[in-house]
## 1
Amino acid sequence: MTTFGERLRKARKRKGLSQMDVFDAVGVSNKALSRYENGDAAPNPETLKRLIRLYDVSSEYILGLTAEMGRSADNSPEGENLIDMTDNRASAEKLIAFISASPTAFHAVDNISRKLSNEGFTKLNEWENWDIEKGGKYFITRNGSAVLAFKVGEGDPSGFNIFAAHCDSPTFKLKPGAELETIDHYIRLNTEVYGGGIMSSWLDRPLSIAGRIAFSTPNGIKTQLINLENTTVVIPNVAIHMQRQINDGFTFNPQVDTIPLFGSEKSKGGLMRAVAEAAGVKEKDVLGVDLYLYNKTPGAVWGAEGEYVSSPRLDDLQCAYAGLSGFLAGGNRDTVSLLAIFDNEEVGSRTIQGADSDFLLSAVERICAALGKSKAQTLPNSFALSADNAHAVHPNHPEYADPQNRPFMNGGIVIKFNARQSYATDGVSAAIFKKICAAVGVPVQTFANRSDKPGGGTLGNISATRLSIPTADIGLAQLAMHSCYETAGSMDTLYLERAAAEFFRTKLTRLDLSPDGGYELEA
Ligand SMILES: [Zn+2]
């Protein structure tokens, strides 16, 4: 028989609420709630009523008169473990807003940094001394396109809980002096491919340009983000009458077929004029640019029951967004919670702001030093989730999926496996992640490539070679990965938000077993 406190805790967990969420919703403090859940005190009838309403649980269950939790689980096939997903549309709309405000990796990091500042995180600089205190919240950025945020537990942090994702997506980068010579009255922009995108998805749709510029100042240079929202460019298809074979398959030449049209000869010089104007600087002072095309089509929630969300850049901003949300909600007094959002995953991660850099390693070393901990001892007590989207079974091509591991959208979080360790997951890290998801009623599913299809890589095994921490590679099921308009499940973002929050609330302690690989999990 469970105790009153345990039932209260279970009902809260089923609803996916942190103690902080409860405080925000009904004003019961963390301390009071801990005392109720630990059986050290009982709430008064008025408070109890508010908690029962908030948890959407039957009062008979809380009072121990029945083992059925009731209410939000009434219609669920898995009983008390399934979370209430009525919020999925709201969560998907928030995801769309986040992605719209993040047309490039630079903007995504700026967007995340602003959210962290609003939540009271202190910005540190890598080139300065760090004054890190227990209970403190900090973040650093590198190149303006990668960000690490961390919360130091106020107790005795013995390990790191790390959630990693990436914020770049396949696109086209403008080359220097991007305006091509006027030909047949047209001005086009010279671009090259960034990442492995689906080329055809970029044609015949409104695109725009965003990124970062570096401009001259009297004493040096400064950088600024720009988004040419009022500029539209289009990569036009050739009419079928001039290429009858188009529907039989097509090979794109990136120097010919994917060059966007900017304007007529009247717009000569207009690109850099627009850039300088957007930045509020003189055109002659713009000394360097990192500009990318992005899809202007806004995201949408759709499907007969609102099951799906389509948007540019779901890979991997969906995971970055959910990780951030879980990171802000979670935390444990005896761990360091760390969120890592890297750039350049789509081009191999081997840049100073990519997963294959010393960005995370050097931050971890500095945090260990500040806490007086040995890195060698702390890392084995740490755990990482590498979150990058996964392939859902395709409705028209189910044959591309593995016969047994067939993720579907809204089916929960995908755990990714690969024998060659393109994904870092193994039996132990999968078990840990399943246990964390089960604690908050989040379903999981598994992915493995068909053995005759090589599949892609991701962050987990790359950062693991830099920083040897047990890792699970996970993601959310989606269609059309690397199209400029991708589709995912509208519920899955919320699943990952909840699982990430629970991950950050969980302290993992290694057990001395043979063979090793045993852990104790405490939330
Ligand atoms: Zn990805």
Note: Confidence is low (pLDDT under 50) at residues 73-84.
## 2
Amino acid sequence: MAGSIRDVLVPTGVRPSTEVAVNAVVEISRDAFDAVVMDLDGVITDTASLHEKAWKRMFDGFMATLAPHEGQDLAPFENEDYRRYVDGMPRFDGARGFLTARGITVADQKVHALAAQKDNDFQDLLVKEGVRLIPGAQSLLIALRRSGFRTAIVSASRNCSAVLSRAGLSDFFDASVDGVVAGELGLPGKPHPAVYLEAAGRLRTPPERSVVVEDALAGVEAGHRGGFGLVVGVDRGGHGQELLDHGANVIVSDLAGLGVASSAMEGPRL
Ligand SMILES: [Mg+2]
């Protein structure tokens, strides 16, 4: 594996010490790897702001229909609520968690309806406002394709292909394992490695010849448990140590820290 990582001289699969691993500059080469499997939200696209807006629209609209009641807090949904109750959670659990925290009791059927409404609002916002790309995402994808890497996207989202298409990035990936595919195949979500292993399988590449790029704790843990050759944790929020603890081999503070070695092994693919 020597030569696969520049500036961070650690054998793949061995957890490096924090001193060299955080804010690392990592260069991946075709000598060591054949494929790169990436998470979507937080690595390639930034749809968190759209999700937050959709939750707010739905919750504020719903709470406006309720008569004030002892023990209920009907104040507008705030960013703090987003981070504490719904970010990264399955839709139903997020909706239920927020309502419970506000002292609002409703039947499961109503929670499902509210969660479905949030998804409709999200899709609406996706069309109207578009998708913001994480800085460096497109140039990284271009560099990977030019060097002959096979690429896949792995996301829990059922809106993954809509987001990729809206961002104009559909053609950059050879395979996709999103919430729809995982549902069809009955694959457990991250931190179980099943979705990442399915992606590597679709790229016809063994995990040890594949790189995982992730920003979530559950995601790096999935890559580590799946035996992937290199798990890169993307940390823009100062949670590098936690990512390392969950199985990342190296931490980059943004995608500029992830380089692609030029290789003569294959010609350009784009
Ligand atoms: Mg993510």
Note: Residues 39, 41-43, 215-216 surround magnesium ion (CB under 6 Å).
